[in-house]
Amino acid sequence: MFGTPSSHPAVDRQWRFFTRVALPAIAAVFVLAGVLAAVMLLAARQANQLAADRQQALATTVLKQSMAQVAHDQEAVTVWDEAVEKVRSSQPDWPWLDANLGVWLHTYYSHDEAYIVDCSDHPIYTMRGGKRGSPSDYQPTRPVVAPLIAKLHAKLRLPAKTQLNEAEQSPGVVDLAMIRNHPAIVSVKPIIFEHGAPRQVPDRVYVHVSVRYLDADFAAGMSREYQLDQASFAPSARSDDGYRSVPLRSDSGALLGYFTWRPFGPGALMIKQIVPYSVGALLIMLVTILLLLRRIRHSTLQLEASQAQAQHLAFHDALTGLANRALFDERLTRALAEAHQSSRSVALLYFDLDRFKHVNDTLGHPAGDQLICAMAKRLVAATRSSDVVARIGGDEFAIIQTGVASVAEAEVLCMRIVEAVSEPYLLAGTKLNVGVSIGVAMAPTDARDRTELARKADIALYEAKAAGRGRYVFFAEQMDASIRHRREIERDLRAAIAAGDEMHVVYQPLYSAQSGRITGAEALVRWQHPHKGLMSPSTFIPVAESTGLIEPLGEWVLEEACRAAVALPLNSISVNVSAVQLRNEKFAERVIAVLERTGLKPSRLELEITETSFIESVANCQPNLAALRARGVKIALDDFGTGYSSFTHLRYFDVDRIKIDQSFVNGIDAEAGGSAIIQAIVDLAKASGMQVTAEGVETAEQSTFLTEAGCNSLQGYLLSRPIGVGELAAMCTKTAVGT
Q: Any idea where the GGDEF domain is (predicted)?
C-alpha cells in the first residue's frame, strides 16, 4: 500500500501520509501496545501474587479453624451427664455409644475415628469409618494419643478457671499427628458432667478421642468451599512451578507433610485471553483490555469475598451467623469506650434457654440446633440494628444494647425478648414452649470494665435462674456479696473436710409414741468454724450440694454414724442422703462398703431421702435403692407433705417409713381437734404398711394428738435436742430401748 518516494503526486501523497500520519499512528499503536503489554504483564504478575498470598493466608486460617472445630464438635457429646454415666456403666450400651459418641460423630461431623479411653488408658469403645470397631483398633493410635491424654490430665489438675479459654466448654488438647500413615487432626476431650454437677477427679476421668483425617475427602471439601484448585495433602512440598504449600506441623514442631494447591491466577488468565487480540487493531486490543480489566476486577472481588468469608468465620458463630465471643468482646470494649465519651449507658444482657438440655435429650441434637437458630432469629428481630447479638456458648447468648438513656429502656428490651422467646416453636413435628432467663448489668453504673461488667451480668443471670427461670434480673451489689459469701463457704468447707477436725456428728433421738422409749436416732452434721463459730447446715449444705462436696461429706457422716451405732443399743440409726449422692451409680456400693468396714448390720441403717429429690431422681434412685433394700437397708422419706406427696410413688419404691414435716406438726390446733391432714397421712401410711414418724414435736399437745393419731415415733425439742454420742449413750443406759 505504501511505497517509496516517487515523482508521481499520488505516490507522494501516499508517502507523506505514511510518514506523517500512518507511520506515527502505527508507531503509536505499537508503542501503546508495548506499554499496555508491559503494564498488563506487571499487573498479571501482581494479581497472581496477591491471589496466591491471600489463598495461602486463607488455607492457614481454615486449617486452624478445622482443628478447633473438631474439638468443638466433641463438646456436643462429652459435656453431658448421661455420657459420663454410660461410659462408666459395667454393661456397655453399644447402640447408645454408637448413636452419641461414635458413629454419630462420623455421620454428622465426618470424624473418621473415635475412641473412649478409661482412666487406665484402656479403650472401651472404638469407631473407624462410621463402624464400631474392636479394642485392637486403638493400638496404632495409642503412641500418638497417650501423650495428648497426659497433657489433658495435667490441664485438668490446674485450677478450674485456668483450664478453659473463652471459646471452650471443657478443657481439651488438640494437635496434628500421623495416624495410620495419614496426617490427621487428633482432639482429646474429657467426658465430664455438665455445669453444676460434681467435678470429677482428673485421673479418673474417661477420655473421648476424635480423629479427622487430612485426606483426599478433606482436601476436596476445602477445594470446593474455598476455591483451592487441585488441593491435596502431600508428604513433601511440590516443586512444580505455580503451586503453593502450607506445612503441617504438630505442636512439637514435627513436620507431617504439606497442604498444596494451585493458586487461582487471574493474571495468567488475562494474558491468555489477550494474546490472540494483541496482533490485531488497537481498538480490539483496548476493548479486550477493558474486558480483561473487568474480569480482573471480578476476580479480585471473589478473592476479597473469600477473605471476607474467612474473616466472618473467625468472628461469627458458624451455626447462627451471630457474633461469636471474640467479636462480642471487641464490640463490648468499643461500646464501653464510646459510652465513656457520652452521657448514655450500655446494657449487657446475658441469657440462655431454660431446659435446653431436655430438648437435646428428647428430640436429639439436630432439633437442638434448629431451636438455637430459631432463637437467634427472634433475638435479631427483637433488637435494633445498632445492638450486638452474640452467641457465646451452647445455649448462651448475649446482647449489647448501646445508647441506653435509662434502665427502663433495657427493661423494655428484656420484656420484648421474654415475649418473643416464649412463643411456641415447631421442631421435629413437635410444638415446644421454651423460656429464657436473662441477667442484666449496666455500664457505667455497675462497672466500666468489660470483664467486670460481664461477670456481673453472669451473676444476675444466675440469680434469674435461681428465682425460678423465665424472667429477667438486673444486677445488684448484694448479689455480688452473696456470690462472694458462697465462695468463701465453699473454700472453708473444702478445707474443713480435708482437715477433718471441724466437722462433728450429733444425734437426735426418736421416741416410741406409745411407750416413750428411745427407738433410734438421726445423725446430723455440725460444722464448728474456727472463726465464724457454729455454722447452720442450711448455710453450708446447699453449697456442698452445688459444688459436689456433699459426696465426701455425706460418706463421712454415714461412716461416723454407723461406727457410733455399733456401740449403741439402738434399733436403728438414720442418716440423711442428698439427691446428688443418689444420682451416683456407685452410691449403693459405697454404703455397703461402709457397713462392712464398721460392722453395722444393714437392717439397723435407715437412709432418709427428701421427697422432692426422691421423685425428681426416679431413674437414678431406683437401682441404688433396690440394691440397698436387697441388703436389708431401710428407706425413710423425710419432710413428707412438702413435695409431691404421692403414695403411688412410695408403694412403687417400697419405702419403709415416712416422716411428717414439721410445718404440719406446727399447724396442729388443739382446740380444733388436731389436724385432719396429719390424720389422713397416718391412715394412708398404715394402710400401705409404712411406719410414721412426726418431726418437730415441741409441745405436749402436739405429742398427745400425734400419739392418738397413730404415729409410731416422735422426734423434736420437746423430747430431746440433738446431742453428742456420749450423751446419747448415757440416755440409752437410763432408758430402755423400745421397739
A: 344-477
Helix residue spans in 617-717 (DSSP H): 618-630, 647-653, 662-666, 676-687, 700-709
SS3 349: strand
Contact 381, 370 (CB under 8 A): no
Annotated domain spans of the chain = 1-78+265-314, 83-214, 325-475, 489-734
* Separation of alpha carbons 261 and 244, rounded Å: 6
Residue 231 backbone phi and psi in degrees, to 5: -70, 140
Question: Is the whole model's pTM more than 0.70, yes or no?
Answer: no
Domain 83-214 carries which CATH code?
A: 3.30.450
Candidates 2.40.50.1070, 3.20.20.450, 3.30.499.10, 3.60.15.10; correct CATH number of 489-734? Answer: 3.20.20.450
Strands 518-529 and 572-577: parallel
Tell me the pLDDT tens digit for each residue of 16-66: 655 665 567 667 666 766 776 777 777 777 777 787 788 888 888 888 888
CATH of domain 325-475: 3.30.70.270
**Cα–Cα distance between 138 and 128 in angstroms, integer?**
10
Q: Is the peptide bond before 444 cis (omega within 30 degrees of 0)?
A: yes
Residue in this structure with the C-alpha cell 440397698, named with its chain if needed: 628
Backbone angles phi, psi at 228, to 5 degrees: -105, 100
d(CA 85, CA 87): 6
Give the span between the Cα atoms of 420 and 423, in whole angstroms: 6
CA torsion sign, 697 to 699 to 701 to 704?
positive
